[in-house]
Design a protein that fits this description.
The protein is of the alpha/beta class. The chain has a single domain (3-197), classed as Glucose-6-phosphate isomerase like protein, domain 1 (Rossmann fold). Helices cover 52% and strands 12% of the residues. The protein has 9 helices and 5 strands. It has a 5-stranded parallel beta sheet, with helices on both faces. Strand 3 (91-95), helix 5 and strand 4 form a beta-alpha-beta unit. Helix 3 packs parallel to helix 7.
Length: 200
């Protein structure tokens, strides 16, 4: 592939992923998800498998740093005791593009016995087992992956991450979260130093 073709292909991929994000239908499910987070008396539990799991883990990290206690639970480990972190005051976010990942669906089903007050699914496929076991469904839409094989989930993971970012930042804003609050939770590194300097 020549250099000019590399640049053209890179532009195509970036535009494809940006278009997939822009195509997400923002509807009342976003309101319901925000209300579920705000109503949490406990913590936000986040789960996902594979690449969706990386997005889920990142969502938990962003929530923690912006004032919402959250923890990522790997669905495989949940089957071996980690499901015990779920409690009655929690809410559960399940990330799965297909909504058919056995470990994720099983974790949601079994978590019901431990009492999360809401389960929110972030998923794409309309024929999804995850939709059937969730209270709130944020639909990612039908996504065409720019991968030449049509398999590598780059656009779908970009959409998933963007949805997670929207939720985290809206909750942060609604709580009146300040730079000082941020610095208290993120005391290390460049961002921690910047937060402290801004509050001198």
């Amino acid at each position: 592939m020549e250099m000019t073709h590399i640049q053209e292909r890179a532009q195509q991929i970036l535009r494809s992923e940006a278009a997939a994000i822009a195509a997400v239908e923002v509807n009342s499910a976003f309101d319901a998800a925000i209300e579920a987070i705000e109503a949490c008396r406990g913590k936000v539990i986040v789960t996902g498998m594979g690449k969706a799991g990386f997005s889920a883990n990142r969502f938990a990290a962003v929530l923690c740093s912006t004032g919402t206690p959250a923890v990522f639970v790997h669905p495989g480990e949940a089957a071996h005791g980690d499901l015990g972190v779920v409690g009655p005051g929690d809410c559960l976010f399940a990330f799965s593009t297909s909504g058919k990942t056995r470990e994720v669906v099983e974790m949601v089903e079994l978590s019901r016995h431990l009492g999360p007050h809401k389960v929110i699914a972030v998923t794409s496929h309309p024929q999804s087992d995850l939709r059937l076991v969730s209270d709130i469904i944020i639909d990612m839409g039908q996504i065409a992956e720019p991968c030449p094989l049509g398999l590598t989930p780059t656009a779908s993971i970009a959409v998933m991450s963007a949805i997670a970012d929207a939720l985290a930042l809206i909750v942060m804003e609604r709580r009146g979260f300040t730079r000082k609050d941020y610095g208290l939770r993120h005391h290390g590194g460049y961002l921690g130093a910047k937060a402290r300097l801004d509050n001198v």
